[in-house]
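User: C-alpha cells for Fumarylacetoacetate hydrolase family protein, please.
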Amino acid sequence: MVSYAVSPPPQAHLDITGSDDKFPVRRIYCIGKNYVAHIREMNADERDPPVIFQKPADAIVKNGGEIPYPVFTNNFHYECELVVALKSGGYNISEADAAKHIFGYAVGLDMTRRDHQALGLAKGLPWEITKSFDHSAPVGPITRVEDSGLLETGHVRLKVNGEVRQDADISLLIWKIDEIISKLSEQYRLMPGDIIMTGTPAGVGAVVSGDVLECSVDGLAPMQVRIGGAAA
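Assistant: Done. Predicted C-alpha cells:
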C-alpha cells in the first residue's frame, strides 16, 4: 500500500443514468470555436480550426450543485455543450474507429471568465486563466451509448431562470464527434475516463449570483445548477 505524505484528493466522478456505478474522470478536454454562429458572436475568424484546451478534473460540479461566483472576474459566462465520455482510447484513432471508444454522453457547461479571455486572446496567452478555474466544469449524468445511440443530431439548450438563451443542434458542430476524437488522439493518448466538451453554440452570456441554469441535450439526462455567492 502506498503511503502518502498528505491526504490524496478524492477521485472526480460523474453519475451514470440508471446505474449506481460512477464514471471516474481522468481528464477534461474542451473544444472551442466549434459552431459558426458562436465564432461570429465572438468576432473570431470562421476559418480558424477549433481550439483545444483542458480543465482540471476536480473542476466538475454535478447535477443539482452550486457554482460559487468565482474570484478574479466580473464577467462570468455560461457555455452549454454536449459532453462525450470515453471508455477506451489510444493514439492516432481513425475517424472510422472513433465511435467504438464512446462510453456515453452528457450535457455540460464550460464556465468562462470572459473578461480575461479577450486579454488572453489579444496577447496570445494561455487559456487557463479564463477556462480552467475551480468549479468551471459542471457536467450532468452520463447516458450510456447503448441507451442513447450514437448522437449526430439533437437540440442543445440552455435556460437562465427559465428563459431560453442557447438553442441549437449538435448537427451544426464544425468538427463532428468522430473528427474530434481522432484529432485529439493525434496530440494526446486518450484513456478510459476522459471526457470531451465538444463546443458551445451561440447565445453565451453573463450570469450572477442566484441565477439558475438548466441545460439539456435531446435524449440525455438534463442538468440544473445554481450560481452561488462569491467564492471564499
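User: Anything notable?

Assistant: The longest strand covers residues 102-109.
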